Amino acid sequence: MDLRYEEKEYVLDKELIEIDETKASAEEMAEYRAHEKDATKVSCIMVATKTPELQRFYEDYWPYRICQDLMEKCHQSAHQERYEIFSSIITTKMKNGDSVMSHLQRMQRYVDHLIKLNVNFDEELSIDIILHSLPPCYDQFKMTYHINKEEVTLSKL
Predict the structure, then answer these.
(1) Could you tell me the CA-to-CA distances from 25 to 13, 28, 33, 65, 99 in Å, in that order?
(2) For the chain, what are the domain ranges?
């Protein structure tokens, strides 16, 4: 079912709020009942597409609340993921004798993962962090890099 085609997408963005039937106008009641009917259909579809555990959890939720809860859970998950990647990126140090290429590739994967999580992580900062992660035997290389002030991409580094 395409919610846009069926014009039921609004139930994801507009919360269904109970109204007092004794005080509501006929127009308000009709609008409420239409919203409730659409929300029930969409809710059934949403719950049916979840795992059995999530089906039990969301069976009494309206679509708006399901969306809000899922967005909150995704945000928490992304936040935790960003934290773990940042922790790895700042604690990763290349050991003497390790392959520079494999170290750079590992660091590049961290940066790429952060970019996928919509973290604004410019290339200059990435290069600074990678240079910092190199062992003392690369001090001459780091000094030459900073003295030359050459614009270099991460892949060129």
Answers:
(1) 24, 5, 12, 26, 74
(2) 3-69, 92-148
